[in-house]
Amino acid sequence: MEIDVSKPILARNDSLAAENRRTFSDAGVFVVDLMASPGAGKTSTILATIDALRERYRIAVIEGDIASKVDAEKVKAHGIPAVQINTGGACHLESDMIQRAAAALPMEELDLIIVENVGNLVCPTEFDLGENAKVMILSVPEGHDKPYKYPAIFSKAEAIILNKYDTLPVFDFDEGEFREVVGKLNGKAPIFPISATKGDGVKAWTDWLAARIDEAKAKASSS
Amino acid sequence: MEIDVSKPILARNDSLAAENRRTFSDAGVFVVDLMASPGAGKTSTILATIDALRERYRIAVIEGDIASKVDAEKVKAHGIPAVQINTGGACHLESDMIQRAAAALPMEELDLIIVENVGNLVCPTEFDLGENAKVMILSVPEGHDKPYKYPAIFSKAEAIILNKYDTLPVFDFDEGEFREVVGKLNGKAPIFPISATKGDGVKAWTDWLAARIDEAKAKASSS
To answer: Which residues of A touch B148 (CB under 8 A)?
Structure first.
């Protein structure tokens, strides 16, 4: 007899994700789940996003990692509240971890929570955390062929950040082919080329995010 | 009631891995499992390894990916037999997939099988495939902090390849800190800085691999 354990695990995850979504909505907090490979620049992108939006929104960060708290420390050094989740081995965040992390944050004093998922192009894709938007980062050094190999994450992302764009001359990255393959998987998601550490292109990404946040706020206040 | 499903899954995996190990040993084939993040350069490293060792050993490749066959095609274009496994969503290879892939290869005509695992620093770590050695690749653009966040894979690797070493001037990668943290996790694994696409440093890595292959052959013929 074979048991498909993935269904009950996902059902429980989705039910807690729905609770999270209500909590966030009631508090007027927009939540974005950032997914990427290890080393694609999730933390640098978060720091650049904080710099661009901190005058306008009250921001907190939930950091997900197998081990260590180096990322949460980087965010805190930026003067932003951060909670570190250590999954202890799990390759993705789940909604119960987000629920516990959110309980440690001053929800009523926030407008935006950025969740940094575990570095992984596969496992985080399937797990609803109760976020408003899933966004993925690919970095130029990873190569333009990644959408062929990891189609699900490219299909599900609402926006795609192409980070380390300043290193394009150093790598054999065919941006035309990348955009074409991504376009077939996902006709809606905008692609934002950025250099998170240098700041290039960050404005287009944070303008998109700010529009999404304001749209959610307007919708909440009209209901 | 909670059921720990990971134990029976791992037990079944390990029992098939032991079968694989006997099959490989009987045929005198050395098997190396290459693990890395998406885009760290697994396929480029395999192509460079083939170029360095093809005069000396008969080589085949088993390619693991969620989807697509682009990597197997690259290897076949190099004139080397390759089998593509598509996991269909699973974030790592398991021993039953290797068993089926190996059955499609001319085992008695081979000395070395290189397995390219799914791009992931987490999930492949736990699964014995019946290989002789697990080797990991980190690429310079991923950053020197990865051993803090993904300690298990650095602990388990028998050798660590530091790829895209030629891009060191472009990235903020502290090699001293990297070597120090890896040394604490794993006192034994040699670290091989290479540039797979340019060939720099590849000889040290393939000399190590050749020594391991010859050692296994000597041990098999004396028993």
So the answer is: 67-68, 70
Q: CA-nearest residue of chain B to A40? A: B142
Query: Would you say A17 and A97 are in contact if contact means Cβ atoms under 8 Å apart?
Result: no
Contacts of residue B38 in chain A, CB cutoff 8 Å? Answer: 37, 121, 142, 146, 149-150
* Best mutation target, A150, A177, A184, to test chain B (most B CBs within 10 A): A150
Q: Is residue B198 a part of any domain in this protein?
A: yes
- Please, how many CA atoms are within 13 Å of residue A59, restricted to the half-sphere of its CB? 24
Asked if this assembly's ipTM is beyond 0.85, the reply is: yes
Record the tokens describing residue B154, joined without a space. 């650095």
Neighbours of A188 (CB within 10 A): 8
B11 in a structural domain? no
Answer whether A72 touches B (CB < 8 Å): no
Q: pLDDT at position B2, please?
A: 47
Q: CATH number of the domain at A68, please.
A: 3.40.50.300
Is residue A132 within 8 A of residue A18, CB to CB? The reply is: no
Average pLDDT over residues B37-53: 98
**Does some domain include residue A9?**
no
Which chain B residue lies closest to A87 (C-alpha atoms)?
Answer: B149
Q: Which domain holds residue A56?
A: 19-217
Contact A121 B119 (CB under 8 A): yes
